[in-house]
Design goal:
heterodimer, A: about 450 residues, alpha+beta, four-stranded mixed beta sheet, three-stranded antiparallel beta sheet, 12 strands, globular, disordered C terminus, B: about 250 residues, alpha/beta, five-stranded parallel beta sheet, 10 helices, binds iron/sulfur cluster
C-alpha cells in the first residue's frame, strides 16, 4: 500500500478550546501524526499570587467556563486543606449535589451537541433543528434542567457564586428543592428517550481498542465524583491508590514542543481521565439504574475503546440524576440549615481534587500568614489526556491506513476520537516546576 | 429582510460566555434561531464560511500579536462587531498578570522561552480592531445579550448601564456588604447584572468592569477605612477583574 495523504485540521470544531490535528503520510509511511494544542496560555498559576484566599476560587474558576463548578470546588478543597478548614456534612452534601448538576449538564451538552452530530452525519446541531427537531428540543430541555439545578445550589453554573471557602454564602430553601425535584421527575421521560436515542446510535461507535491506564477518584462511600482518593487501574485490573496530597507522584508533568499544555504519565506512557476512566475504576459502585444503562448500551469494565467515553457519559448522566434525587430527598426531609462558614485554623499549603466532567482535576495553593496566596498549581483533566490522545493517534492512524481509509474518513475518525475525550482546552494553564516563593 | 448572519469567535478566554448561549434552554434558544442564522460557532459547529457576517460576537482577550490578523479578518467581514464578556471588553481576569513580567517563568520554568508560549499583556479586542458594542460581565448576563441582539434586530442602539452596582442593590433592598463587616467593589462597578453577588452574601468583585471614570482613589479609601482591609490589599484589590481600568495600567 502506498498511500499519500495529508490532514491538517486547525482549530478543531465542536471542542472547547483550540486543538490541531496534523497527519502526513507519504507512500504509506507516516511522516507526522500529531495532536497539537496551540491555545493561548493564560498563566493562572501566576495570577493567584498575592490574592486573598477568599478570591482564589473566584479567579481560578475562570480557567474554564465549562467546568467552572469543578474548578471552583477543587480550588475550595485545596484552599480549605491549606487553611485547615473542615466543612460540615451539609456543605459536603450540597457540594456533591452541585457537582452532580455540572456532570449532568456538561454530559448532556457533550453527548447531544458535540458528539451526536457526527453520528447523525451533520456538521452541527443547527441543521438538526430542521431534521431532528424533537431531539434538539429535548436536549435543550435537559440542558436547562442541569443549569437550573446547578444555579439553585451554586448561584450560577458558569462561575458559581455561592460556594465559598468554609461552606456556602446562601442556601436553597426546602420549597426550592421541592420545585427542583418536581422538575427532575418531569424530566424522566426525556431521559428515557435519551437512552433510546443513544442505543440507536451506539452501533455506529467505531471499534478501536488501545489499553491504557485509567485515573479517577475513588471513594468507599459510592461512585466518586466530589471526593475521594486517587486511584488508577491498568487494563488487567491492577489498581493502585494515591493520596491527593501526593498527586504529583502520579501526574508527572512534562512539556512538549507541540503543545502549550503539559503532558502527564504514570505507570504506563500515558493515562486517561474522564467518564470512561471513572467507569473503569468504579463501575461496581454505580447505582442499579446506571448499571442497567451500562449493560443495555454494551459498556463493560474495563473498556479500552476511547470512543466509548461518550457512552460512559450517558451512564453517568443517569448516575448523577438518581444520586441527586436521593440528595434532594435528604434535604427535603431534614431541611437546610443556614450555617456559618468554617474558619481557617492555619495558613499553609494544601491540595484538593475533584472529578470534573472531563476527568480528575487537581488544584494546589500555598498561603502566607495573612491568607495571601503565594502560588498555585492546577492540573486539568484535558491536559492529562493529551499524551493519551497522541498515543491513540499513533495506534489509530496505522490501523486506518490498514483499512485503506481515505483522507476524509481518517479525518473524521481522528476528530471523533478527540471529541470523544470531550477536551476543554480553553483552560491551558500549565507549569512544569512551580516554585512557591516564600 | 433576510435573517442576519451571526458568528461567534473566541480568543484568550474560558469560553464561559459562549456556554451561556446554551443555558437559555429550549424556549429562548429555539426562538432566537427563528430570527438569526448562526453561520460560525467553532465550539458548537463544524460549518465555516467566508461570507460577510452581519453580527460578529468576539469572546476573549487580545493577548498575542499572532492573533491580530484573525481579528482584522473578522472586522473586515462583519458589519457589526460585539465584544462580549469581560475578557473581550477590558481583558477581565486575563489582565491580572499584566502588572507582572515573570508570569511565563513562574508557570513554565525553564521552558518559558519556548516560542509557542508567547503571550503579551492582555487587552480588550478594541485595542486591535474597532468594536461597535460591548456586552460586559464574567460571564456575560445572558439576558442582557438577548436584549442587545433584540435591539440591533429592531434597528435600535443597545443601552448599557453606566451607573454602579449599588443602584441595583438598593433596588433589590439587599443589605450592603459593608454593613455586615465585609467589603465590596459595587460602588464603582458597572451595573447591569442585577447585583446577584451581594444578594447571595458575597462581595461584588466588579466582574463587569468599572463605570466610565470611576473614582479609584476613593474606592481604595473606602476599602481601607470602612472595610478595614489591610493596606496592601486595598491597593491591589481592584486587580481581579479590573486590572486594565486602574489608573496605573502600563
Ligand atoms: S468573560 Fe469570564 S466567562 Fe466570559 S470568557 Fe472571559 S473568563 Fe470566561
Ligand atoms: S453591597 Fe456592594 S454593591 Fe451593594 S450597596 Fe453595598 S457596596 Fe454597593
Ligand atoms: S454583582 Fe459584581 S461581581 Fe457580581 S455579577 Fe454583578 S458586577 Fe459581577
Amino acid at each position: 500500500m502506498s498511500k499519500t495523504l495529508s490532514i491538517a485540521v486547525h482549530h478543531l470544531t465542536r471542542v472547547e478550546g483550540h486543538g490541531n490535528i496534523e497527519v502526513d503520510v507519504k507512500n504509506g509511511k507516516i511522516q507526522k501524526c500529531e495532536w497539537q494544542v496551540p491555545e493561548a496560555p493564560r498563566f493562572f498559576e501566576a495570577m493567584v499570587r498575592g490574592r486573598h484566599y477568599t478570591e482564589v476560587a473566584r479567579i481560578t474558576s475562570r480557567i474554564c467556563g465549562i467546568c467552572s463548578v469543578g474548578h471552583t470546588l477543587a480550588s475550595l478543597k485545596a484552599t480549605e486543606s491549606a487553611l485547615g478548614i473542615e466543612v460540615s456534612e451539609q456543605t459536603f452534601k450540597l457540594r456533591s449535589l452541585l457537582k452532580h448538576a455540572e456532570n449532568f449538564d456538561s454530559h448532556v451538552l457533550h453527548v447531544y451537541f458535540l458528539a451526536a452530530p457526527d453520528f447523525l452525519g451533520a456538521p452541527s446541531v443547527f441543521p438538526l433543528v430542521a431534521t431532528h427537531g424533537p431531539v434538539v428540543a429535548r436536549a435543550l430541555r435537559l440542558k436547562r434542567l442541569g443549569h437550573e439545578w446547578g444555579s439553585l445550589i451554586g448561584g450560577r453554573t458558569t462561575h458559581p457564586t455561592k460556594a465559598i471557602p468554609g461552606g456556602f454564602s446562601a442556601f436553597p430553601t426546602v420549597a426550592e428543592l421541592k420545585e427542583l425535584k418536581a422538575k427532575m421527575l418531569a424530566a424522566v421521560p426525556d431521559l428515557e428517550e435519551t437512552l433510546k436515542t443513544i442505543a440507536a446510535l451506539a452501533p455506529a461507535i467505531p471499534a478501536f481498542d488501545r489499553p491504557t491506564e485509567y485515573m479517577a477518584l475513588h471513594s468507599q462511600s459510592g461512585y466518586a465524583l466530589y471526593d475521594g482518593d486517587i486511584q488508577t487501574v491498568l487494563p488487567d485490573g491492577n489498581k493502585k491508590t494515591y493520596k491527593v496530597a501526593d498527586y504529583k507522584t502520579c501526574t508527572n508533568e512534562y512539556l512538549t514542543a507541540v503543545s502549550t499544555a503539559k503532558y502527564t504519565k504514570n505507570r504506563l506512557g500515558s493515562y486517561a481521565a474522564g467518564a470512561l476512566a471513572r467507569f473503569n475504576n468504579n463501575h461496581e459502585q454505580l447505582l442499579p439504574e446506571a448499571k442497567k444503562v451500562a449493560a443495555d448500551l454494551g459498556l463493560k469494565g474495563i473498556c479500552t475503546n476511547p470512543y466509548m467515553n461518550t457512552v460512559a457519559q450517558v451512564v453517568e448522566i443517569v448516575e448523577s440524576f438518581h444520586e441527586s434525587l436521593a440528595l434532594v430527598d435528604h434535604f427535603i426531609k431534614n431541611g437546610v440549615k443556614d450555617e456559618p462558614l468554617a474558619k481557617p485554623t492555619r495558613f499553609a499549603k494544601g491540595a484538593g481534587a475533584t472529578e470534573v466532567p472531563r476527568g480528575i482535576l487537581f488544584h494546589e495553593y500555598e498561603y502566607d500568614k495573612d491568607g495571601m496566596c503565594l502560588g498555585g498549581n492546577c492540573i486539568i483533566p484535558t491536559n492529562q489526556n493529551h499524551a493519551n490522545i497522541q498515543k491513540d493517534f499513533e495506534a489509530l492512524v496505522p490501523k486506518l491506513l490498514g483499512e485503506d481509509a481515505d483522507e476524509k474518513k481518517m479525518e473524521l475518525r481522528l476528530e471523533m476520537l478527540v471529541r470523544a475525550y470531550d477536551p476543554c482546552i480553553s483552560c491551558s494553564t500549565h507549569f512544569l516546576d512551580v516554585k512557591f516563593i516564600r | 429582510m433576510a435573517k442576519p448572519k451571526v458568528a461567534f469567535f473566541d480568543f484568550t478566554c474560558c469560553e464561559g460566555c459562549q456556554i451561556e448561549f446554551t443555558n437559555y434552554g429550549d424556549p429562548v434558544f429555539l426562538e432566537l434561531l427563528k430570527h438569526v442564522d448562526v453561520v460560525e460557532f467553532r465550539e458548537a459547529m463544524s460549518e465555516k464560511t467566508k461570507d460577510p457576517i452581519d453580527i460578529a460576537f468576539i469572546e476573549g482577550s487580545f493577548s498575542r500579536e499572532a492573533d491580530r490578523p484573525r481579528l482584522e479578518e473578522i472586522r473586515k467581514r462583519a458589519k457589526i462587531v460585539i465584544a462580549y464578556g469581560q475578557c473581550a471588553t477590558t481583558a477581565g481576569i486575563n489582565a491580572l498578570k499584566n502588572h507582572t513580567s515573570d508570569y511565563r517563568k513562574f508557570v513554565y520554568g525553564k521552558d518559558a522561552a519556548l516560542p509557542h508560549l508567547d503571550s503579551q499583556i492582555a487587552v480588550g479586542v478594541d485595542q486591535a480592531i474597532k468594536v461597535d458594542y460591548y456586552a460586559f460581565g464574567c460571564p456575560v448576563n445572558k439576558y442582557e445579550v438577548l436584549q442587545i441582539v433584540s435591539h440591533l434586530l429592531h434597528g435600535k442602539d443597545p443601552v448599557i448601564p453606566n451607573y454602579p452596582v449599588c443602584v441595583e442593590c438598593k433596588r433589590r433592598e439587599t443589605i450592603c456588604r459593608f454593613d455586615v463587616g465585609d467589603y465590596c467593589l459595587g460602588q464603582t462597578a458597572r451595573a447591569g447584572c442585577g447585583a446577584p453577588c451581594p444578594a447571595d452574601g458575597i462581595p461584588c468583585e466588579a466582574c463587569r468592569g468599572f463605570v466610565d471614570k470611576p473614582n479609584h482613589d476613593s474606592l481604595v479609601k473606602v476599602l481601607d477605612k470602612r472595610a478595614g482591609m489591610p493596606k496592601g490589599w486595598a491597593q491591589t484589590k481592584t486587580r481581579m477583574f479590573t486590572a486594565n481600568q486602574r489608573g496605573d495600567v502600563k
